[in-house]
## 1
Amino acid sequence: MKKILIVEDDVRLRQIYQTMLTSDGYEVEMVSTGQEGLAKATAVVPNLIVLDIMLPGGMNGFDLLEQLKRNPTTQQIPVVVLTNLDNARSTVTSIGAEEYIVKTNTSIDDVIKKIKNYLQDGVS
Amino acid sequence: MFWFHRSSHLNTPPDQKPVLSTVLEAISDGIVVVSVDGIVQMVNGYARTLLGARAKDVVGKPIFGLFTLENEKGVLVSPENAPWRRVLEQKKSIGPAQYTIVKTDGGKTPIALSVSPFFGQDEKTVEGVVIAFEDKTTEEEVEQMKTKFIPFAAHQLRTPLGSIRWNTEIILSGKLGIVPPYLIDTITTVYDSTQQMIRLVNDLLNLSRIDEGKIPNDPVDIDVAVVIRSVVKEMQTLVEKRALTTEVTVPDVLPKLRLDASRFRDVIQNIVSNAVKFNMPGGKVTISVTSSEDHIEILIADTGMGIPQIEQKQIFEKFFRAANAVANQTEGTGLGLYVIKYYMDEWGGSIILDSEENKGTTVRLSFPI
C-alpha cells in the first residue's frame, strides 16, 4: 500500500485529505509541525509528501523541504507543496519541490488528481 | 510680531497683531515666513518644535540651513531646488507636496509642505513666501500598518475560505452521500459565494502589492487552455444557475506563455467572472484563443449589460464601477480591471474592451510570446 505523509496544521484540511485519500486506498500519515514531519519522513519513508508552508513550531515548510532534500533517506521522495502563499513558486521549486499548488485557487479534485499522479509515477 | 514691519502690505491694525501672533503660535502646523532675499522673518512654535535646534535664533538669518529636505524619492533637495525658490521665481503657490524633514540629529519627519508667495501693495511685487507644513508621521504610520495588515488579513482569510471551498466541493460531488435535491441550490450558493470571496481576497492582495510596488514575478510556462478550462469549470455552478452557455475554442497547438502563473490566473478569472456575472440570464460566454508568431490573443465575449459609452474611459480606474452595474446590484469592487490593466502593462501586453450597453462586452487580451 502506498504511503502519503501529510504535513498540515489545519485540522479542517487534514480531515479533507483523510477523506479523499484513504477512500482511494492510500495509507495516510498526518503530522502538523515541521519537526514531526522530518521525524516521520525519515522513519516511514513515504511514497509522497504533501507539505504546507506556514507551520507552527519554528520549522516552516521551506525549512522542512530543505532538510528533506538534503537527507539521503528522503531526498528522492516527491514533495507536493500545498499552500496559501501565492508567491512562493520559485522558492519551493528551487529547493526541489516537485509541485506547487495554491490551495484556494485549486479545486480539491485537481489537488487529488495531482497527488495521485505522483503516486503512479513516483518511487514505489 | 517683529516681521510685520517688513511687509508693508500687511497693514493689520496694531490691536490685532497680538491676536494674529497668538493664532500663529497656537496652530498645529509649522509656519515659516521668508522675505524675498531669503531671510527668515518668523518661525512659529510648531515649526520650532519640528525643526528642532535649527530653528533657534534663526530669525533674521538666511533660510538656507533652517531646512534640510528630502523629496518623495528620498533624495536631498539642494538649496537651488528648494520649493520656496521656485515659488519666488514663478510667483505661484505650490503644494501640499510630500517631503521629509531631516533633523540635525538625523531624525526624519514626513511632512506635507505648501509654499505661497505674498505680494507688496502694488499686488505684483513678491515680498516673500509663507511656508506651511504639517506633520504626517501618524498618517505615514497608518499607511505602513495598512500595507502590512492587508496581506496578513488576506492570507488569514484564505485558510478558512479554502476549507469552505473544498468541503462544499466534496459535498456537491456526492462523495459523502447523496445530496438531497432541495439542498443542492443552497450548497451551490455557498460555493459561489466562497469563490466570490476568494476572488475578492486575491484582488485585495494584488492591489496592496501594486501599491507597494512588490509584484510577484515568478515566470513559468503556462498552458493557456488548461487555465481557461479550470477557470470556466470553477464558474460552472453560477453559469448553470444563470442559464448561461459557455463556448471555449482553443487551437490544438498553442505556444506556452511565460508569465507568473498566479497573476495570469487572476487576470483570466477576473474577466471570465465579469462575463458571467454581468451577463443576461440565458446569455452566452464565448472564449476563443488564437496565436500568431509573436502573440497569443484571448477573446472573452459576453451578451450582458455592457458598459455605458460615457463611462468606458474610466473602467480601468481603481474602484470604478459602471452605473448600470451598481443599479443592478451586481457584486463587485471596481478593483478587477484596474489590477488586470496593471498586469497587462507590466507584461507588455494589452487589454481592449469593446462594449455596448445591453448588448455585451468583448475583452481582447493580447500577450507577447
## 2
Amino acid sequence: MTEYKRPIPTVTPLLEPFFKAAKEHQLVTQQCKDCGTWVQVSLQTDQCPDCWSRNLEWKTLSGKGKVFTYNVFHQPYHPGFRDEVPYNTAVIELDEGVKFLSNIVGCANEEIKVDMPVEVCFEDVNAEVSLPKFKPAG
Amino acid sequence: MSLKDKCAIVGVGYTQQGKLPGRSAMSFFVEAAANAVRDAGLKKEDIDGVLTQSGYNQNVAQFHSMEVSRLLGIAPRYTNQASVGGATCNTLVHQAAMAIEAGLANYVVCIFGDNAATGGARSPQPSVSLDVGYGQFGAAAGYGQAARRHMHLYGTTHDQLGAVATSFRKNAMDNPIATMRKPLTLEEYHNSRWVVEPFHLLDCCLVSDGGAAVVVTSAERAKNLKQTPIYIMGMGQSAPCYVPNDVGGKDPTGAKESGEEAFKMAGITQKDIDLCELYDCFTFTALVTLEDYGFCKKGEGGAFVEGGRLEIGGALPTNTAGGLLSESYMTGMLHIVEGVRQLRGTVEPERQVKDAEIALVSGNGGILASHSTTILRR
C-alpha cells in the first residue's frame, strides 16, 4: 500500500463522535432533538442554527444520496495532493436532506454527474481516522 | 432618514498594481491613502476618519486601522476596520457616509492594500478541517460548486463564462494600470489550464500587490472641493451567510436584497444604470450578480453576457477597467475608484463611457455569503 500523503483531518473534541462512528464504518451527523433540523458535519457547531436549541444528537444516516454538485481539482493546493490531481470533491445530498462534502470513488471524474445516485463507503486512513467516501449506487 | 445623495466621493487614489516585490502591504495602504487625499485637494489635517479592510496576507496587524492611521500621521476621530470578505470595500464607504451624517467625522478615507502576489502565502490553517482532508481548498472550490449547479439548472455554458473573461479583458486593454492588457480570444480562454473545474485559470481573479483608496465627505463640503463630486445615491447590503456546501441552489445571492435596497434608496431602476463595476472574483460571480440585480431573469445571465453587451460601447458596459479578472485584485476598492473616475469623465478617452451619469458598484464576499451595493451619480 502506498503511503498516505493527504493531510489527515484533526479529530477535534466536537467531531469525536463523527470519527468514532466512521471508524466503525457508520456515517453520522447531528440532528436537533427539538426541531428536527439536520446539521452539516463541516459546520462544527454544538447549537442548532435553526432554533438555537443545544439539544443535538448524533444520528446514523442511510448513507444513500445523490451528487448535489462537484469540482475536479487540477491544481494541487497542498503537497499531499500533488500525486492525486485531477481529483474530485463533491457535495452529497443525503436522502435525509443533509449535505456532506466528500470524494466520489469507484468511477472516473468524467463520469460524475449532478443528481447521480451514490452510496457511502469508507477509507481507513489510520488508527483514529476513517473517511466516508461515496461510490456510484448500484 | 435616507442617506441618498447626502455624501460624495471626492478623492480617489491608487498605486501601481501587479507583482511589486519588496513592499509591505502597509506601504500600499499609506501610498493609496495619500494619493486619494491629494486627489481630493485636502490636507492630512482635514482627514478625521480612517476605515480599512486588511489584506488577505499573513502578518496583518491586529489593530489594523490604527496602525494605518499611525503610519499616515493621522489621529482620527473615527476609525475602524471591517471584514465581510470581498463585500467590504463598499461597506467601508457606507460606514463612512453613516459616520459623516451622524457627525462623527467630516472627511473619511477608506483604504485597501495588499502584497498577496509577492508577499507570501495566506495564513496557514491551525488545524486540518474535515473538508481539507477531502482536498477542498480555496475560494475556487466553493464558487466552482455554485457555478456547476448553475450550469446544471440553467444550461449555462463555458462559452458564456468565457464571454465575461474576454469582455473584461477587452475593457482592460486601454487601462494603463491593468495587469492583463493583451487581447484575449474565447479560444485562448478555453485553452487556459483548468484550476478547479468548472473553472479555467482565466475564470479566476488575479492575485495582486497594490493599494486603492477613496475619500468620502458630506455633499455640502463636497461642493467646494477640487473634484467633481460623485454622489452616493444608493446603498445596500445583504449577507445570506450561506453554508458553503449549500450554495448553488435556486436561492438568490445577496445581490438581490442588497440591490433592491440600493435601487430603492436611489429611487431608480436597472434602466437608469449607465455602467456597472461588479465584483468578479470568478467569471461566474459577475454573471450571477447581473441576474440577481435584475438586469436579466434568473438563469438567463449566460445569454445576457454574450454578444459584447458588457464591453465599453456595449449596452451595459461592465468592469470598464478590467475588474478583478484583468485589472487587479484590490477586493473591490478599484471598482469604486473606476466608477468615480468614469462618472467624473476622467479615464483614458479610449475607454470612457459616453455621457455616463450613474454607476452601480458591487462587492461580494465569502462563498456568495455577503454582498454590498453602491450606486453613484455625478
